[in-house]
Write a structure and sequence with these properties.
It catalyses: sn-glycerol 3-phosphate + NAD(+) = dihydroxyacetone phosphate + NADH + H(+); sn-glycerol 3-phosphate + NADP(+) = dihydroxyacetone phosphate + NADPH + H(+). With 320 residues, the chain is α/β, with parallel strands linked by helices. It folds into two domains: 171 residues, Rossmann fold; 132 residues, N-(1-d-carboxylethyl)-l-norvaline Dehydrogenase, domain 2 (Orthogonal Bundle). The chain has 16 helices and ten strands. The strands form two sheets. An eight-stranded mixed sheet has the order 5-2-1-6-7-8-9-10, sandwiched between helices. Helix 9 packs across helix 15, helix 10 runs antiparallel to helix 12 and helix 14 crosses helix 15. It is globular. The mean pLDDT is 98. It binds 1,4-dihydronicotinamide adenine dinucleotide (NAI) and 1,3-dihydroxyacetonephosphate. The site of 1,3-dihydroxyacetonephosphate has 13 residues, from helix 9, helix 12 and helix 13.
């Protein structure tokens, strides 16, 4: 069984490092120069600095070589997934493709598994998601993640092949729940960052996380997820991590909005597009998603963080 990771950002590189503990791994970058530098310097200086690449990792920009592996982990941002798969659909046909991204595609409202099904119809899709910072995984710190696949036989094999000494995978066949837990927690993390950045305090953050989780469940159940999936690593677990740590880019983006600070636009912040996608879908379905709505509005500049908080507080009182 051979493994490649397609996408050499922070998460793809971290996964490759962890998986290299089991055997050889091919790490593919679309950027030839970056691939050469990483292969020579044994470091991803751009996205994961100061962490060495084990000898068992081969970095390449040759997709024909990378796609020869049995299992391909696809670790690109959600809004880039369709384009990346479409570009290489011919060599990805029939492969096991494990999406490692968190989000909802803005143009279609779909999650990663559906995007794989549309772009590479005869691939075997799965999803790796849950609470983990790339830096923690790359440093070999203990992490537990969710592996989701409709086909439980394939999922059991993947669970075995992708678990490492420090990466413990739990499996589920509820791909919708797993996708949505990872996608929606990023939206709530932006909200929590904004709340802290604006100086609203820890109690307000706890309220946002809890009411945010209620929104996550409402949306996921509407889409057919199982409620227990949201209580697991890909829902509650990732919500707790991302809403409470400045290691999260979504949280830091929210902090910057609350403090009215600049933010590096080259940073991957999945929650921005996902908040817009959610708001669009919720409006069409008549679903009440107030926190997602204000996160979409503060991200697009339609309203300030202060206005958003006042609007949330002044909504009609209701049962919990
Ligand atoms: N960084 C983290 O701690 C974690 C990230 N994730 C998820 O992993 C996904 C990727 O995030 P990161 O690696 O952190 O982002 P990143 O910004 O560090 O890297 C993204 C990578 O995708 C590549 N890329 C973009 N468009 C591409 C295309 N069309 N074809 C090929 N490659 C393309 C970029 O060149 C870059 O190397 C996101 O959905 C994120 O939510 C999940 C768990 C942890
Ligand atoms: O998904 C993550 C943690 O599980 C990483 O979060 P950020 O994308 O906000 O950095």
């Amino acid at each position: 069984m051979s493994i490649s990771v397609l996408g050499s950002g922070a998460f793809g590189t971290a996964l490759a490092i962890s998986l290299a503990g089991n055997g050889p791994v091919t790490l593919w970058s679309r950027d030839t120069k970056q691939a050469q530098l990483m292969q020579e310097n044994r470091e991803n200086a751009a996205r994961l600095p100061n962490i060495g690449l084990p000898d068992r990792i081969t970095v390449t920009s040759d997709i024909a070589l990378a796609s020869q592996s049995d299992i391909l982990l696809v670790s690109v941002p959600m809004q880039k997934l369709r384009g990346a798969l479409r570009d290489y659909a011919a060599v990805l046909a029939g492969k096991t493709l494990v999406a490692c991204c968190k989000g909802i595609e803005l143009s279609t409202g779909l999650g990663p598994i559906s995007v794989i099904r549309e772009t590479v119809p005869d691939a075997h899709p799965a999803l790796l998601t849950g609470p983990s910072f790339a830096d923690d995984i790359a440093r070999g710190l203990p992490t537990a993640l969710t592996l989701a696949c409709k086909d439980d036989v394939l999922n059991q094999k993947l669970q075995h092949d992708l678990s490492t000494a420090n990466l413990r995978l739990y499996r589920t066949t509820d791909v919708i729940g797993a996708e949505l837990g990872g996608a929606l927690k990023n939206v709530m993390a932006i909200g929590c960052g904004a709340c802290i950045g604006e100086g609203m305090g820890e109690s307000a953050r706890a309220a946002l996380m809890t009411r945010g989780f209620a929104e996550m469940q409402r949306f996921a159940l509407m889409r057919g997820a199982r409620p227990d999936t949201l209580m697991g690593l890909s829902g509650m677990g990732d919500l707790v991590l991302t809403c409470s740590s400045a290691l999260s880019r979504n949280y830091r983006y929210g902090l910057a909005l609350g403090r009215q600070d600049d933010f590096d636009t080259n940073t991957t912040v999945e929650g921005v597009a996902t908040a817009q996608a959610l708001t669009k879908i919720a409006a069409a379905e008549g679903l009440d998603m107030p926190i997602s709505k204000v996160v979409a509005e503060i991200s697009s500049g339609e309203c300030s963080v202060g206005e958003a908080i006042r609007w949330l507080l002044n909504r009609p009182l209701k049962e919990e």
